[in-house]
């Protein structure tokens, strides 16, 4: 492209350091920004650096050199020839001038202040647009007046030239003077209107500053009230002691409306900060649960619209699988075909009391590209994301009990409790797990002890994706591919797992599918970190079409309800509700059988509530207590303490063998940071090699397959229609033979 166009591209040599000197880079000049890449192929995915020309200084050292400086960033560039250098200088100067003009125009619109919101701008520019429109109307009228006035004066002049009586000439002259005076007056009125519009435009900046100041004051006041409300709530909870689930004969469950809950499709939510919290007092309950007396539960449904009846004999404690839902010894309820549990470690070295010195992090980042800045292990916990994914199996016995259920809706209750239990370990776990390397695996072989074996593999690096497969000889199989999407919103970080979780029971063929909710880490910048779960889960049995709608209520400082509350309803294919689920995602989940349902009163929003009369709730799941001294061991559960325990015969790509993670667990964080940086650089080198191979294949017209997972393969799921990674077999056979020849050297 010519230098005067909006986009200019080409090769230049860029100074890197004293060891490598000048390196050839591909530069792209567009929209006032100069960006560079290592290769042309990188333009699709990786930008190495960008400089804004509107505030940059352009200098030329000699016949071929160009120096660009913007604040603390300086680019030393060299062209192949003086002619090429002059082309780039011309293009840079033109782009800089255009960028400055655009910035000044934006500055004029915003009054050199912070941009106001859209509503503020509309308030300011609305009257100005009206005034401008009226001024245009007046200008049109002025032109017409001037046109007709000139014609009138010509006519009067022609009359003066005629031979008329003296008194008539005097009258014509007076009329001519009046017409001239009228035209002058109309012009003065138009000029006054134009001056008024200019004055309004000049004052618009002052109005914008005043409105912006008021808006900032309002935001500060809201934040102060929010902080005071949180402190007040903390003080109340401290006075009451540990909060528990409200108990009584009647409880109101604020949950999403059954039938209007949308199915989570796995897309990342674009919610604003205002939607993160909502006033729980304004969230009208969709249904009311009333505990019924089992002996007198029968009521006539003739006068109730849409009533449905249940039978208490279905809720027999002696015969029901719910009887074994208490957290007793697992070996007693899973059969005699399992061996006694192997003794495993119950503690790890205490977490070192390292203060996080920001300068020690910053000094290692000076002069480095953003993509190469290593995040220290100070923010991590000594587990990988693959191990955290495996942690979802901590309460696997819920699925073993679900196998015994004869009713699909009863089985759904256990599946729903299992989906909630996977969040119980997150309440205190604010540290992030290690990002797995591409090709990294993690196995958890508990086939002889607990009846299942699990395998995870990192199947993609950009975007990061992990595939997981679990087989249980107790009668179920679970698989999933999870991709993590995150959005940093200033005060908090939203983590959105994308992908469906599949669970299939061997004997019945029931196939359940659900997706995870959004996790939010609060107080990222200032304050103590805390985690909340919010959103909705729809669990669907694709064989029987049963559904369970679960709602994770976000924390609200206005609500007096139990924090971290989860509520839901289990219904069959016809939409008839059978069970009510209630509890908290960090403590326990209960299930109540519905014996009667009816339409109750209408809410203030005009939506009718449903009243469920239920039998006494039964606890399906209760969280295990944390081990002793857990606060000094990253708040790990008993299972989490064993996940990184060294084991023999695992694959060379297993997370247990990752050196930086092992060093961090041992308390040697400085060495772990060095090792982590080495592994990341090694992975970048492999990625660069793959990119070079892709470019070479593209130039030769060949198809480049890219990375192929070791133990998983991509297939279209028959249920969801999505392309996911499923286990293709071979891992456990390779382990038996100890043949790991297909495993890459990633550590």
UniProtKB/TrEMBL annotation:
Example GO biological process: lipid transport
Main localization, broad class: membrane
Superkingdom assignment: Eukaryota
Lineage of producing organism: Eukaryota, Metazoa, Chordata, Craniata, Vertebrata
SMART domains cross-referenced by the UniProt entry: PH
GO cellular component: cytosol; perinuclear endoplasmic reticulum; plasma membrane
PANTHER family: OXYSTEROL-BINDING PROTEIN 2, OXYSTEROL-BINDING PROTEIN-RELATED
Coiled coil region boundaries: 211-238
Record's compositionally biased regions (Polar residues): 248-263, 322-333
Example of a GO MF term: cholesterol binding
Region feature Disordered, mapped onto this chain: 102-126, 240-275, 292-347
Swiss-Prot/TrEMBL keywords: Coiled coil, Lipid transport, Lipid-binding, Membrane, Phosphoprotein, Transport
Protein name: Oxysterol-binding protein
Bilayer topology: Peripheral membrane protein
Pfam families per record: Oxysterol_BP (PF01237), PH (PF00169)
